Here is the input.
Amino acid sequence: MAQLRGGIESGLSGRIGGVVYARSKGINIVRSVPIRSKNSWTPRQLLHRQRFKAVNDYCTKYKYTLIRQIWNLADEYGHGYNLFLQANMPAFGLDGQLSEVEKLHFSAGKLPLPMQFKAKQSVGDPAKVEVTWVNDENMAKVFNYDELMMVVGYSDHSTAPIATGVRRSLCTALIDLPAGYESGTGIYLFFAAYDRKSYSPDQYFRL
Here is the structure.
């Protein structure tokens, strides 16, 4: 539907039938609506559509466990889903396959990640992960109360964020993997503020 904006002299804006009316730099523009059929897409465009659908299907699974909790806070306009989708696009190949799990991201925000952040599966107990890090001595004291969080995943699915109960001030942790995830592909670690109003980016560690 076309709309009349700013009086008749400003012209129409919108679509009527097969044409679109618009105004750019003080000039009224009329252009035809592009007509596309299933056969008009190039192979590259079809691959892009396939990839976008795959990423969208993957990200939709986390609408309630991640988007509302973390990503809406990370985007100043509250469009967390779009931010989450864009952040995870590089993990998928042109064919829509999840090809690089290390490029997935489950957290974003302004909290800093610590220095020398390291994590490895415990040699004595594969159900546990040993984590160490070094805090910046100039870091604001309030960051000491941040809690270490984790997401554990396989190649095609991951857990919801799990609070470990470990504070940033400790600089070390021995955390338990959820039951059934001892053979997961990797772990994504990040920090959450004590009031859960801000988060850090995550870092991936292969298990």
Summary: The helical segments are 43-60, 63-74, 80-88.
